[in-house]
Structure formats: structure tokens, C-alpha cells
Specification:
- The chain has 216 residues and is an alpha+beta fold.
- The chain has one domain: Alpha-ketoglutarate-dependent dioxygenase AlkB-like (Jelly Rolls).
- It is built from 2 helices and 13 strands.
- A 7-stranded antiparallel sheet has the order 1-2-11-8-13-6-3, covered by helices on one side. Strands 7-12-9-10 form a 4-stranded antiparallel sheet, with no helix packed on it. It has a two-stranded antiparallel sheet with strand order 4-5.
- The longest helix has 14 residues, at 33-46.
- It is globular and about 40 Å long.
- The protein starts with 15 loop residues before the first strand and ends with a strand.
- It binds N-(carboxycarbonyl)-S-(naphthalen-2-ylmethyl)-L-cysteine and fe (iii) ion.
Length: 216
Amino acid sequence: MTPDLFAEWPAEPTTEAIVDGAVVLRRYALACEQALWAGINAVAGEAPLRRMQTPGGHTMSVEMTCAGPWGWVTDTRGYRYQSKDPVSGRPWPRMPDAFRELAQAAAAEAGYPGFVPDACLVNRYQPGARMGLHQDKNEVDFSQPVVSVSLGLPAVFQFGGLKRNDRPVNIPLAHGDVVVWGGPARLRYHGVLRLKPGGHPLTGDCRYNLTFRRAR
Ligand code: MD3
Ligand code: FE
């Protein structure tokens, strides 16, 4: 990590195990919120946020774009990672340094030193947007964690079990919260409840979530 950029970080951030394998670093991303916001706008300027189609033919309510060598996409042909933005036909924008440094530092804090994400999915939730319960399993190595960063309006995150029908627990995620999902948490079902309207000084009327993955 860049010492100057992250100089204001507390030496020992507080970590809290929310469920087995998942560690939440509350407000961990606050110190670099401006760099993250600049990164989001740079990425979305090059590869605009869009609502993708599910294989079942529905349009997702969450708007998405990607950064880094691999981007996650869905369309009527299925879910997958690909190196090019299907809208432009060009490679995804590069992953901003502040993104990678934050994800790496958070993963190390949670016990995953050497995490090098090759995919960052940028999700934007406007009021009413939600994400149904799903597993993230398009990546090749499930021993690699996923790091998620919440910015803007708060949301209720649902964390289920390894089976879709396992009753989920609700976890509030607020601006700046970073969660590292590894080990036994990695393949659990999860989702986000419908976003309530509101306003936030950094992001306006929406919530952003960055998820960092090792796709390949
Ligand atoms: C647990 N995003 O993009 S972040 C997703 O808030 C996704 O936008 C949600 O689920 C969001 O796939 C949730 C928390 C999260 C992300 C990935 C996970 C939790 C996870 C992967 C495995 C286990
Ligand atoms: Fe997910």
C-alpha cells in the first residue's frame, strides 16, 4: 500500500468476525473515500454502468460495470468473466491503484496476505434496487477470498447458508464498511434487500458496492 495515501489509517483497525469466515472492517474505506469515488467515476466514464440481462431473461435492478483484466457479465447466454466490455468491445478499464491497494490491505488484515484481485465489479443501487440470494461461483479458486466495499447509502445484506433455503441473517452495511469473505463463508448464498431512498454526501441518492475477486 502507498504510505502517503493511507497515512491516516489507524495502525490496527478493529476487525469483527460476523460469521465463520467473514470479517467486517467497519468504516475501513473511509480514509480513502475520495480516491475510491474518483476511481468509480473514472471507471464508469470509460465503461458506463448498465443493467445486464440474467440468463432467465430478466433485467437486473442493480447497474454494473467492471475494472481490471477480467469483468463479470451476464446475458441470456449465462454468467461468466470476460476480458472485454460487451458494450464497447474494448478491454475493461484498468483497476485504479486505490482500489487494488485497499482490497489487498483489507484481505491481509483478515488473514489473506498476497490477495491480488484481477476483477473488480462495481455495483450501483438506486432506490428500489436489490440483489436476490445467489452464490459467487464463476471464479476458479474458492480458496481466494472476495473483498467487498460499501459506499454511500446503507443497505441490508443477507447472508444465508450453503443451500438456497437456509435461513439468512441480516447484516447492515454502511458507508466505508469493508467485508472479507473467505473460507467457509466463500460459497454461502447472499443478497441485498431493496435499497431505501435517501441521500449521502459522497454518492448522492445511491449505494455503490465494489467487489474484488480473483477470477482466474
Ligand atoms: C459473500 N454484491 O456483486 S457485497 C455481488 O452489495 C454481490 O453489491 C453485493 O453479492 C452487493 O456478487 C454483496 C458482499 C459479498 C460479495 C461477494 C460475496 C458477499 C459475498 C462472495 C461470497 C460470499
Ligand atoms: Fe455476490
